[in-house]
From TrEMBL:
The lineage of its organism: Bacteria, Bacillati, Actinomycetota, Actinomycetes, Streptosporangiales. The keyword Cell division does not apply. GO terms for biological process: isoleucine biosynthetic process; L-valine biosynthetic process. Residues 389-538 form the Thiamine pyrophosphate enzyme TPP-binding domain. It comes from Nonomuraea terrae. Keywords: Thiamine pyrophosphate. GO terms for cellular component: acetolactate synthase complex. This is Acetolactate synthase.
Length: 556
């Protein structure tokens, strides 16, 4: 008799071919044959307490490893619970596959348990969404979904697999099982050679250039090319999103606090892997007289919301390397002359830093959030992956916290999703057990997915969690006060005074409560030494708002 194989085992074989070594999941009757296949293929199954966490963890896994992440959830509410995680990955350009269960094809349109039109729901927030129509096609369509994740800028795909398709067994020789390395082409595009030459010429003539290194620098693993570019051409660099950490703090080309000044005064601005969205004032924050160059993986992003002088579509690393090489023979004099420009920016940077320094050293109680994020920044090592999950408190951290290495910064991305922190910490620690993981939560953000702290304990995934606790959704509170007055500032945004350190202990982790700023660093050290998942609950001043909160465009 012919050897047979089930749909769930075909899923596992396709995941293994893609290099996936873990799935994040919450169990359901529709999907358990996938677990059985994963056991046979040596793929770890990490079961969480909410499907949103599973999807966020798959997103986080992709960011950390450079490989696509995978989450597996059951039909109906299991899939709808994961929608937020998929949407976040979509806006953040993170490659992941969500596999959702579905009622049997034999019960199509009959009202089977948890039946919903999942593909219709997922289509607007994925690069590919489909139903697997037969068991023979399971591995084939899983591979197709992964391929589509890398069409242009990366993003998520979704597959629903009906229960009878997943559970059925077919002769092995009838199943199409794409082989690893044989169903995806290289996606690295160098960009138009004429455009590269044009960029080189612009660099040769620019007196005050600057570059913004965005998330695609890390997506493309373009760190070395970006560093070579800014150093060879003597260009000041700013970093955002996952691009943070491309240059280490203290590097002469690393700038952070003078970005607004640079965007106003520069004569050439190069934007790499960052859309002109709300974070960039839709492009309006760039000098109208500067020449603007935009480099992006996605053609649709280039020139959107703001006119540009040059657009180049392709891999950030290849483009920056090619541009540096093209400019090398004509840039020496211009690069040397830029010392005055870098000195000008450094003076602005130093002034901003010194203005804020007293608050970073403040001994006030309740604790100034600047003091908290300062202590975190001082605590980070070159091997600490930093994760921000929150509103106002994470806005503070964006000004102060500087990761020491590439790929060591994680935030939700442009969807602004709260609740990613626990899942990102889970994925980061599971994928890189050699790294320390530190996550700063707002108390509101932690509340959304905090029960998966227990998952971290159960799978022995130690990390250092810090809750900046002001018992408020403070970013929203500020907007309400500004819009409606202080007497209506606390409607719908005030939380209870929760001792999250005690919560951590309850779930088997390490926890502390901190009210004295002098105790922040010792508490962080004790959490590190505990070797457990931890929560340091730091009570911060609820009457203090981050400058970024007060400048939010949605309130203007």
């Amino acid at each position: 008799m012919s050897e047979t194989i089930s749909g769930g085992h075909l899923v596992a074989k396709a995941l293994k071919a893609e290099g996936v070594d873990v799935i994040y999941t919450l169990c359901g009757g529709h999907i358990i044959d996938i677990y059985d296949g994963c056991v046979d293929e040596g793929i770890e199954v990490i079961d969480v307490r909410h499907e949103q966490v599973a999807a966020h963890a798959a997103d986080g896994y992709a960011r950390i490893t450079g490989k696509p992440g995978c989450a597996v959830v059951t039909a109906g509410p299991g899939t709808t619970d994961a929608v937020t995680g998929v949407a976040n990955a979509f806006r953040a350009e993170s490659p992941m596959l969500l596999i959702g269960g579905q009622g049997a094809l034999s019960q199509h349109k009959m009202g089977s348990l948890q039946d919903l039109p999942h593909v219709d729901m997922m289509t607007p927030i994925t690069k590919f969404a489909a139903t697997v129509p037969s068991t023979e096609r399971v591995a084939d369509i899983v591979s197709m979904a992964f391929r589509e994740c890398y069409n242009g800028a990366p993003g998520p795909s979704f597959l629903e697999i009906p229960r009878d398709v997943l559970d059925a067994k077919v002769p092995l020789e009838k199943a199409r099982i794409p082989q690893a390395g044989h169903y995806r082409a290289s996606t690295r595009q160098q960009g138009d050679p004429e455009a590269i030459e044009q960029l080189a010429d612009m660099l040769a003539h620019a007196e005050k250039p600057c570059i913004l290194l965005g998330s695609q620098v890390w997506t493309c693993r373009a760190t070395d090319s970006a560093i070579d570019f800014v150093r060879a051409l003597n260009v000041p660099a700013y970093m955002n999103g996952s691009g943070r950490g491309t240059l280490p703090p203290g590097d002469p080309h690393h700038f952070q606090l003078s970005r607004r000044y640079a965007f106003t005064e520069a004569d050439l601005i190069i934007i790499v892997g960052t859309p002109f969205d709300f974070r960039m004032g839709y492009g309006k924050r760039l000098s109208p007289t500067a020449k603007v160059v935009q480099i992006d993986l996605d053609y649709r992003t280039v020139g959107k919301n703001r006119d540009i002088d040059l657009g180049i579509v392709g891999d950030a690393g290849l483009i920056l390397a090619a541009a540096a090489q093209a400019a090398s023979g004509r840039i020496q004099d211009a690069a040397a002359k830029r010392k005055a420009w870098l000195d000008e920016l450094r003076a602005v940077e130093t002034q901003a830093y010194e203005k804020r320094l007293p608050r970073q050293h403040s001994d006030a109680q309740p604790i100034d959030p600047y003091r908290l994020v300062h202590e975190i920044n001082e605590f980070l090592t070159e091997d600490t992956i930093y994760i921000g999950d929150g509103g106002d408190i994470v806005t503070f951290s964006g000004q102060v916290v500087q990761p020491k290495s590439p790929g060591h910064w994680m935030d939700p991305g442009p969807l602004g999703t709260l609740g990613v922190g626990m899942a990102f910490a889970m994925a980061a620690k599971q994928a890189r057990r050699d790294k320390e993981v530190l996550c700063l939560f707002g108390d509101g953000a932690f509340s959304l997915t905090g029960w998966d702290f227990e998952t971290m304990v159960r799978f022995d995934l130690p990390f250092i969690g810090v809750v900046g606790n002001n018992s408020s959704m403070n970013q929203i509170r500020y907007g309400q006060a500004a819009k409606y007055g202080e007497d209506r500032a606390r409607i719908g945004n005030t939380l209870g005074d929760i001792k999250y350190g005690e919560f951590a202990k309850l779930l088997g982790g390490y926890g502390e409560e901190v009210r004295d700023p002098a105790e922040i660093r010792p508490a962080l050290e004790r959490a590190r030494e505990s070797g457990k998942p931890s929560l340091i609950n730091v009570w911060v001043d609820p009457e203090v708002y981050a400058p970024g909160t007060m400048n939010q465009t949605m309130y203007k």
